Amino acid sequence: MTQTETMTRETDRSLNLLVGLVVVAATAVLLGCLWWLGDHSGGRVSAALTLTLFIAVCSGTGPLVRIRADRHHLTSTEAAVLIGLGTLPPATVIVCTALGVAIAKGVLRAPPIKVAFNSAKDTLAASSAALSVFLLGGLPVEGDELRLFGLLCVAAAAFTMVGEAVVVPAIALATRTSISQRLRANWDIRLALLGVWTTLAFGGLLLVGRDDQIILVVPLVILCVQLAYATRLRARAEREAWQKLAQSTDEFNSVELDGVLVTAVTRAAELFSADEVEVELGSAAGRPRLVRGDSEGVRYDGPPSGAPPAPGKLITAQLESHGSKADLGELRLRFRGQVNLSEREHYTLRTFASALCTAVRNAGAYAELARLAAQHAHDAAHDPLTGLPNRRRLLEAGSRALQERAVRGITALLLIDLNRFKEVNDTLGHTAGDEVLVEVARRLRTAAGEEGIVARLGGDEFAMFLRGLTAPAVAAHRAQALLSTLAQPIDLDGLLIGIEASVGIATAPSRGGMEELVRRADIAMYEAKRNGQRTAVYSRAMDTADISRLALGGELPRAVAEQEITVSFQPIVDLATGEAVSAEALARWQHPERGSLDPRRFLETVERSGLLPAFADAVLNQALLAVATWREAGFELPVAVNVSPRSLLDRRFPAAVAARLRAHEVLPERLTLELTESLTLSQLEVVDEVLATLREIGVRLALDDFGTGYSSLAMLSRVPVHELKIDRDFVGAMETSAEAAAVVRSTVDLARSLDLVVVAEGVENEQQRRALWEIGCTAGQGHLFSRPLAAPQLLATLRRGTGGRLGALSPPLHRAGRVIRIPTGRRVGDRDAEERLPHWPA
Questions:
Q1: What is the pTM of this model?
Q2: Which of 148, 347, 642, 823 has its CA 20 to 30 A from that of 36?
């Protein structure tokens, strides 16, 4: 038996006991009155019948009030009893009261227990009124209206007090509320009615003394008062219901779903006087869940299939989810009896259900936001493929460890770089490469133990931070053991492969902190790779071994500040017309001593120095400045800028691009960012967010050197690009290699099917230009049109034009108006092939 059923049975027993006591007491009073009437029969049978009928009318015509599954009449029996006490003996009035109330409740088809209870309750109330009048001298009082009115007031007070003493505990038990709460409910209206009934009785007795027929008017007056009373009571009930509804919906502000459901169950039980309330949530709100309870609290909370059966009539309301096809669930009111809600209650129920639905959605949204915040915080500090801490997390944790004075022993960092890992990706695919990285991460975690910190710095580079070592040589010993662990074959679908690695070892410096420790371990790792060793321990002599690279790293801040980083522009040309349609920005370092340096000489140093954001911003700034300058001269020429893969690992990169676009007032679609295929699929999961943000800004994306890497198609399926660029090696080999020509043709067909722009790099002669145009390639760049030029030189070239055409860098393939025979290999789609131009922004 459930707790709810137990409480219900206890309540029913208490009610039955109360009813029994009241009925027994009233029966005793009636027996006494009948005994008295047997000895003092006065023969006023017609008057007694009239009073009985009068009491029946007053008891049966009151307004209805629903308490849970029961409907109660609010009667005006007091007025009839008071008039009866002024015209008939008290015993007759008591008997007439019992008969009149019983007749009224029987006509209304009330259950026998209610007939007995109401008849007994009013019998006891009438007895108390008669006793109080008898003790004060009795009625009627001739010629003393003031004393008559006083006696009626006393009798009315006695009637009401006894009636309330019997009714209030019964209602409190039925509604499971306190007796004091029931006494306070509508006390002002009850008190006003008491005065009205007393006044009516007083007026009725005065009029009856003059004309007996006037008594027929009194029921009509009482009926009018009852209607006014019912209207006032219903208005107050509706006002209180709306107040409770407002209070309930205010409590739905909880951001916790558990709090929302507890509030819904307890408040709905109180608001609708329901015996029990259920809220069932379906899969649209998460996992299926049922919460059941009453005004006292929740009785069940769990899966719907595990809920114990519960009897009673259900009135339901759907929790409609406006943003989804499926509803969130259902709100149910359970009554242990037949109940019909009023129109106002149905509207209140729908409003309550709507507020509950909103609260459930809000709680779900808050829970999802909290989960996403925790997930984002975790993702920001961990590698998504291996789950290891990333570089940022390693620097933070290492810095805290170095600052802890309580740490004893030597702190060391092992920087691990896998050898020939690219061969695994190129031979077996990136999925196999990812499996290798995950297994390497697992082995490193095991080797590090609880005290060590293992991080993935990017690509195939890992780090292990060790504390509490007894001597520097212990770090080298750990590195050897680590390499032995990594050398154990890894099973990739039946293929066993071994992993080789190079390890750079550095101990914590006296100053410089964690970043200096990483730098030293990095130098040692490259020293091991350079010399073909498995491990290398950092020493100061190693800094001079790569002095050129380190010197460039030290000069980079000066180069960026003094604008030694310059940008040249190679135009991209419409192959058919020879007109420039865009330009690619090519960065150079104009070193004061070493001359012009190609990015391949210093880009790795830039990426490892932490100056990549400043370098990328300098290149982007010059490129967009050139676009603005060309625009002022009348040439709307977009620009393409190469992006380092590491820039796409920086979530601040899109904001920096947007800031530069705003600073130069350049539309986002005027900028194309060229991506390389040097990103593994695991890294793509990291850069997805950055690429999506760049596309939202409006920046165009291009995939550079398409077809040269193993992952060309995989990259194209993952990266939402606008443009493909064919590598110059394929273009140069088209005339002599059928395979190269096939690659170019398939790339053009693929771009056309995906509605992408395709640009051929390295166009050196007219034969290549015409061959590219005939297979459907619309744009190209190369020395045939122009070498890389500074922005002012390119502007001058555009102004000079070719053949009197501004912006043209080469004569058109065909003269205007000439009939052109489209080559059989050149497809014609919905648009004419000759008019199919790149989708450059207007």
A1: 0.41
A2: 148
